[in-house]
Amino acid sequence: MKLLLITIDGPAGAGKTSVSRMLAARLGYSVVDTGALYRGVAYEANRAGLQPDDDEGLEKLCSGLNLKLIQTEKGQRLLSGETDISDKIRTPEITMLSSAVSARPAVRAYLLKIQREIGREKCLIFEGRDMGTVVFPDADVKFFLTASLKTRSFRRYQELTSQPLEAVAEDMKRRDKNDSRRALSPLQPAHDAVIIDSDDLSLEAVAEKMLSYIK
Ligand code: DC
Q1: pLDDT tens digits for 171-180?
Q2: Ligand 1: does its nearest atom lie under 6 Å from the Cβ of 176?
Q3: Is residue 111 within 8 Å of residue 42, measured between CB atoms?
Q4: What is the pLDDT of residue 49?
Q5: Closest atom of ligand 1 to CA, residue 103
Q6: Cβ-Cβ contacts under 8 Å for 181 (sequence gap 6 or more)
Q7: DSSP state letter for 121
Q8: Terminal alpha carbon distance of the chain
Q9: pLDDT tier for residue 183 given thresholds of 50, 70 and 90
Q10: Residue 54, SS3?
Q11: What are phi and psi of 89, to 5 degrees?
């Protein structure tokens, strides 16, 4: 089969990560979770004591950052310099902060370059919010995976042990709003994306649907 670059965009909790992993295993591809990069910037901004709307501070921060995604036996890991920060970027605080910094131009410009650099290779599945619209408008296959807020927050609640369902749903609603209403690269389907609603589909069924489309 031709070597492809595949994009999967969609809101939090739609199942992008699980489905990407399933597809990658079936195709022998690697997954690039671009949300981890935004979380990495948020983590470093927080460590530096920056406000998420401090454009000047964020620009300076990004110019000195060295974020790298690497594939290991444990899956994708995020390095900042030589330090593995993968286990520090999934807290509720960094989650909200990543959504806030992702609206800032300096952050998007910095990460756009890194993502396109990675995308020079094929056999990759990129998951994120603007993969098919902005980062890789010429991707070979584009999907937009979505589900209702109720389904998505319940799924996230089952993965997390630290927050009650209502708090998970509230955070997700705020993040949906931030991510889809921002001026730069808002979350939206590319005009040529295949839209899949995963509300009534198992992850396996979504992966099968995507595979048949890819084939
Ligand atoms: O996919 P995630 O939940 O790890 O993403 C964290 C935040 O990063 C999300 O709220 C918005 C931002 N993001 C983005 O703006 N563009 C991407 N391609 C990926 C994530």
Answers
A1: 999 999 999 9
A2: no
A3: no
A4: 98
A5: 15
A6: none
A7: S
A8: 8
A9: very high
A10: coil
A11: -100, 5
pTM (2 d.p.): 0.94
Q: How many domains does the chain have?
A: 1
Give the residues across from 30 on adjacent strands.
Answer: 124
Confidence of residue 74 (pLDDT cuts 50, 70, 90): confident
pLDDT value at residue 160: 75
Residue type for 19, please? Answer: V
- C-alpha 107: how far from chain center: 14
**12 Cα–ligand 1 center, Å:** 8
pLDDT over 90 at 1, yes or no: no
Report whether residue 132 contacts ligand 1, using a CB cutoff of 6 Å: no
Tell me the residue range of the domain where 135 lies: 5-214
Out of 38, 90, 130, mutate this one to test ligand 1's pocket (max ligand atoms within 8 Å of CB): namely: 38
CA of 1 to the centre of ligand 1 (A): 30
Residue of minimum CA distance from atom 11 in ligand 1: 99
The CATH number covering residue 202 comes to 3.40.50.300
Centre of ligand 1 to C-alpha 204, Å, is: 23
- Which of these, 127, 162, 161, lies nearest to 142 by C-alpha position? 127
Q: Can you list the alpha helix ranges (DSSP code H) found in 73-159?
A: 92-101, 105-118, 149-159
Task: Round to whole Å and give the CA distance between 155 and 50.
Answer: 31
pLDDT of residue 2: 82
**Partner residues linked to 196 by β-bridges:** 145
Query: What separation in Å is there between the alpha carbon of 50 and the centre of ligand 1?
Result: 19
